[in-house]
Amino acid sequence: MPKVPIFMPQLGDSIAEATVLRILVAPGESVVADQEIFEVETNKATMGVTTMCGGVLAEINIKEGDSVVVGACMAMIEATEEEIERSGATPAGEAPSLPTSPESVPLPATPPPSNTDDTTPQQAGVHFTVGGDGYQETNDLKVQPSVRGLPVPAGMKGAHYMSPRMRARMDELGMRASDIAFISGSGAGGRVTIDDLEDFLDYVSKWPHRKASSMRLAVADAMRRSWTRPLASAGRPVYMDPVLKHRQHSPLRPGITLYFVRALALALAENPECAGYLVGENIISPKTFDIGIAVQVADGVMVPVLRCVNERTMEELLDDYNRLIAQARRRRLAPEDCTGGIATVTNFGGFGLTFAAPMPMPSESIILGVGASTKTPVWSDEVEAFIPVTKANIVLTGDHRVVDGADIGRLLMRVAELLQRPEYL
Description:
- The chain has eight helices and 22 strands.
- By secondary structure, the chain is of the alpha+beta class.
- β21 (374-380) and β22 (385-399) form a beta hairpin.
- The protein is elongated and about 100 Å long.
- The model is unreliable at 97-159 (pLDDT under 50).
């Protein structure tokens, strides 16, 4: 009696495999056409795999818990020739009938002669058009899904798709899709399978390694979440001589970063939408202008937050600024001291860097980076000679969904303008 295979169908355009949750029929049991034989889980839903014809379930090739790729043979049904003819099913070992109208079909391993129209290609790949004149090459490279389970679209590459088993294993390891993006996948469409992941883990287990600290894991998680947003950056040099002169003559000797914190808060108070949050179809502007200061600590960064920066002078902010910086360096910040900021200032110039592109915290839309100050000769029309000027690059990065590049540029220009008159900060 002929046997009819049950293939894992293409259950969606982006589905490369599914996990078998339940086997609903045992070998030897009778089935009818369209009866549900397996219950499978994709990354989107739980679905059933049905038969094309009635008969007796002869064999099952998979077991519960297996991840089965699209197009794999899951089981065999013994059916009568009458039932096969009635249902239009294709017995195992036979090719399906050619369609009467031209359509794209896969290229065979060896292209057939033009007079072999009754032979159906079996290997997926470049497509040919079937017509009265035989096989003609077309430019259509799209693989159409079918119940027989053709390969997944060519766009499915690398870590784009993860099976439920794969997701469970990665959750167990605390990994994300970005952590496996560099693994070469052996699955359909180049996807990374659970075996690929385990092989990779076994391979790197022989490398030197150390346990990541809680601080490092927190930073990694924050940066992953930040990177899910489209970001835009703008940069420009700013003259630092007015700030350095003001600080030199001030009895309080405020930190350089505090000048930038105050200038950013005043600029944002004039343009509050630049620090807004996109919530649905609304942009929520901040109620208070609380600015964070990035402080490098062992194996991470802490960001204490200064409150109501736009409403308080430099002198009024100084004590809180010094206290928060000192506590951050000792990693002794209270929870209320490092939450609720709307923007952050990071002074990467302290490491001798002149340019960088910092990323805002997930809970913020804006971050201002400050580079190291350098002496630069600038031509002076007044003295008709080059004079030494101290400059620093400043970089502003924002959530591009909320603020456009032009708005970021204007905000940055305003920050630079305020720094030229530090006595008003």
